[in-house]
Amino acid sequence: MSLSVGAPSLLGPEGILFSTRRIYNWNFLCSGEVICDVVGGHLVEIETADETNYLAGLLRESKVEHAWIGLEDFLTEGDFRWASAGAKPTYTNWDVDQPDDHQQTQDCVQLINTGVWRDGNCAHANSFICETS
């Protein structure tokens, strides 16, 4: 697996393409998901606490507060699925009182650099993390 966080980018020894550009509407044209697709991947699907901690550390090192991951609940509110395959996550790390769908506008999920997850408004500019196999 290799990972990426939104351009300019750097391909590290672990195959991580890392970037901090804030991208609008990750689920639409010129978005994080499209950019991930261009590099042969998709928004990251975090499967373990170790992966969460590793990615949160990359965000902190790059002075990025939060980044989109590939989890969303567009089809059914509260039924979060990985965008690439529609699978339910087997691991989550929600922050306290999350997800909250504030004002019924939060269908995308972001990893915070402290390691917790929060739902957010997909229309907000944000960095993002991609993974490729």
From TrEMBL:
<dbReference type="InterPro" id="IPR001304">
    <property type="entry name" value="C-type_lectin-like"/>
</dbReference>
<protein>
    <recommendedName>
        <fullName>C-type lectin domain-containing protein</fullName>
    </recommendedName>
</protein>
<dbReference type="InterPro" id="IPR050111">
    <property type="entry name" value="C-type_lectin/snaclec_domain"/>
</dbReference>
<keyword id="KW-1015">Disulfide bond</keyword>
<dbReference type="InterPro" id="IPR016187">
    <property type="entry name" value="CTDL_fold"/>
</dbReference>
<feature type="domain" description="C-type lectin">
    <location>
        <begin position="30"/>
        <end position="131"/>
    </location>
</feature>
<dbReference type="Pfam" id="PF00059">
    <property type="entry name" value="Lectin_C"/>
</dbReference>
<dbReference type="InterPro" id="IPR018378">
    <property type="entry name" value="C-type_lectin_CS"/>
</dbReference>
<dbReference type="InterPro" id="IPR016186">
    <property type="entry name" value="C-type_lectin-like/link_sf"/>
</dbReference>
